[in-house]
Amino acid sequence: MLLLGTHLVFQLTPSLKRCWLGGEPEISINICPYLVSRGIKGGIRGEGMMPSRFLYICICSTHSQTLLTMACPDTVTLKNLTGKHRLNKGLSDGIDETLKLQGVGYLKRTAIANFSLTLEFSQHTDDGIEHIDIKQTLSGGFKAPTENIVMDGEEHPKNDDLFGPLIGQTRRVKVDELDIDFLKEEWTEDTLEDGVIYGVVKSDTEKTGKDWVIHLVWGFTIKEGVRKFARRYRFTTKERSEPIDVKLYYDYVE
């Protein structure tokens, strides 16, 4: 689902004349300087004026419009994870609260909330160990860092551009091996048969002073009658007494 009336911030280049959100939907956009003094609809309060090389873009409409999406084919599974999958923000939970607790600033959180993210997967096995490479693309064709996941169950340190130093580990497990009930729910039969992709990502506390931990599961689910790639995660930190549970759903693009 694409909700029109979205506000975006893009870096202006000579070739940037207009912005398409995944293909070429027939919607108009207005472009004007990104000014703060008008609040969210004209900028972001308290951050001063954005440089002139940035544009504030509002996709104009008086109502929300749903763009038709394809069901993810049955041939795409956790044993054959291919294709492009775009985050459906209309169906997914918000992640602003977890980002804030992870130390992500207001400007970056606002940009993340307004951009649409597409994941392109490729999967291979090397010396008996599964690897998943994820090419990430933001709205308008902007590239995000490629993620390379080694599914060996070992801890791998990483210096992440957004979260700083962190430690992650990923492996394939059967659902009944999971300790968190929330992560076990709503998966398709093929996901249950293949085993979910389960990861634990945590901040490198010694380097960051942060203590957050994410337990994350990937799989396929049926949402509103349509088969979709999905992620679920539970976020915990000592800064908050209760965990935060998040569901993310992705539309199959190709």
Describe this structure in words.
The protein has helices spanning 96-101, 106-114, 189-194, 205-208; strands at residues 7-11, 29-33, 54-59, 83-87, 117-126, 129-138, 143-151, 156-160, 164-173, 196-203, 213-223, 226-236, 244-252. By secondary structure, it is mainly beta. It folds into two domains: 7-59, no CATH class; 83-252, Beta Barrel (Lipocalin).
Kindly report the CATH topology of the largest domain: Lipocalin
Helix content estimate: under 10%
Largest sheet: 10 strands, antiparallel
The overall pLDDT, averaged over residues, is: 79
- Give the number of domains: 2
Q: Give Rg in angstroms.
A: 19 Å
> Can you count the helices?
4
- The gross shape turns out to be globular
Q: Give the topology string: H per helix, E per strand.
A: EEEEHHEEEEEHEHEEE
Low-confidence stretches: 1-66
Task: Look at the structure and give the CATH class of the largest domain.
Answer: Mainly Beta
CATH superfamily of the largest domain: Calycin beta-barrel core domain
**How far apart, in Å, are the first and last alpha carbons?**
16 Å
Count of DSSP strands: 13
The proportion of residues in beta strands is 35-45%
Summarize this entry quickly.
The protein is mainly β. β8 and β9 form a beta hairpin. The chain is globular.
Write the layout of secondary structure elements.
Blueprint: E1 7-11, E2 29-33, E3 54-59, E4 83-87, H1 96-101, H2 106-114, E5 117-126, E6 129-138, E7 143-151, E8 156-160, E9 164-173, H3 189-194, E10 196-203, H4 205-208, E11 213-223, E12 226-236, E13 244-252
Antiparallel strand pairs: 1-3, 2-3, 4-5, 4-13, 5-6, 6-7, 8-9, 9-10, 10-11, 11-12, 12-13
